[in-house]
């Protein structure tokens, strides 16, 4: 049996896999080899595939439980397969699609819920002539390259992730947005998380964090800006320039990503997406998202005066 051709695309993340036709069911050996490469490279690219929705679903299902996208607006799902979310900038019934500006700031999918996604599988159906790239950052490296004093600070730190920080959410249909906010109260996650399969720790920070627990707004914003700049610096990033037919799967348990809006919005960009449900409940609802309490503020003032 031929084994797969696996070629790294970047130092921090990304590998291309050729020598496989994803329309056919994976053998156990292929599945194992792909999973191993996925854990190592975080983002896998399978060029020149042409999958039906059924084939994309069958492939994706080998890597986890598929999300039925209950949390998404019904108009954004494939009409015959709710396991497929359609990311599209086309108009639907005279209205902008509910996904026309999805993913425009750095994020880890569903970190604003108690169970962030395991990963996702995108299939490129239509693309603009230039631009519309997607970038992923390796959050293992982001954590491992911080200095010991900062790591010590982060070890027991928790952050509030908030759906209202999704960039461009205010431009979407107000009823859909109100429902999303109602269903997704702010959620607290540890800043350092452990990957359930590799056992390696990574830094769960992104641009959908509102604040850190127990810190003042100033402290939170400064620390967050520093950590986000660090985590998404070019040496930790793989940038994918899409080709039609690409299938890209990413491990959401140790990465964040951003979909760039750097393209002519009159040109269609359409991706079919299968989403893998998270395996572990790692977050809890933030009952009180206010900043540091009065007592700790007074102590802080006392400490500086
Ligand atoms: O459209 C893309 O490239 C990715 C959008 C995104 O953030 C996602 O599918 O999770
Ligand atoms: Fe995303």
UniProtKB/TrEMBL annotation:
Name of protein: TauD/TfdA family dioxygenase
Entry keyword annotation includes Iron: yes
Domain TauD/TfdA-like: 5-274
Keywords: Dioxygenase, Iron, Metal-binding, Oxidoreductase
Keyword Oxidoreductase set for record: yes
A Pfam family this chain is assigned to: TauD
GO molecular function: dioxygenase activity
Family: Belongs to the TfdA dioxygenase family.
């Amino acid at each position: 049996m031929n084994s797969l051709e696996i070629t790294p695309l970047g130092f921090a993340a990304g590998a291309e896999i050729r020598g496989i036709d994803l329309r056919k069911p994976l053998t156990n050996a292929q599945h194992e080899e792909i999973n191993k490469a996925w854990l190592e490279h975080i983002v896998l690219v399978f060029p020149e595939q042409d999958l039906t929705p059924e084939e994309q679903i069958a492939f994706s299902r080998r890597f986890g439980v598929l999300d039925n996208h209950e949390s998404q607006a019904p108009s954004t799902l494939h009409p015959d397969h709710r396991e497929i979310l359609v990311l599209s900038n086309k108009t639907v019934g005279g209205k902008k699609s509910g996904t026309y500006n999805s993913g425009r700031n750095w994020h880890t999918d569903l970190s604003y819920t108690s169970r962030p996604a395991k990963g996702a599988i995108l299939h490129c159906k239509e693309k603009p002539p230039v631009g519309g790239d997607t970038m992923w950052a390796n959050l293992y490296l982001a954590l491992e390259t911080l200095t010991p004093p900062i790591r010590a600070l982060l070890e027991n730190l928790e952050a509030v992730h908030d759906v209202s920080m999704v960039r461009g959410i205010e431009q979407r249909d107000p009823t859909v947005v109100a429902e999303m906010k109602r269903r997704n109260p702010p959620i607290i996650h540890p800043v350092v998380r452990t990957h359930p399969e590799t056992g390696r720790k990574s830094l769960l920070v992104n641009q959908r964090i509102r604040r850190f627990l127990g810190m003042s707004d100033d402290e939170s914003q400064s620390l967050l800006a520093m950590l986000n700049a660090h985590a998404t610096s070019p040496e930790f990033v793989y940038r994918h320039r899409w080709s039609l037919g690409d299938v890209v799967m990413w491990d959401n348990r140790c990465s964040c990503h951003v979909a760039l809006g750097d393209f002519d919005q009159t040109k269609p960009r359409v991706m079919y997406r299968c989403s893998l449900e998270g395996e572990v409940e790692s977050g809890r609802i933030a009952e009180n998202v206010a900043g540091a309490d009065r007592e700790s503020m007074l102590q802080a003032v006392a400490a500086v005066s």
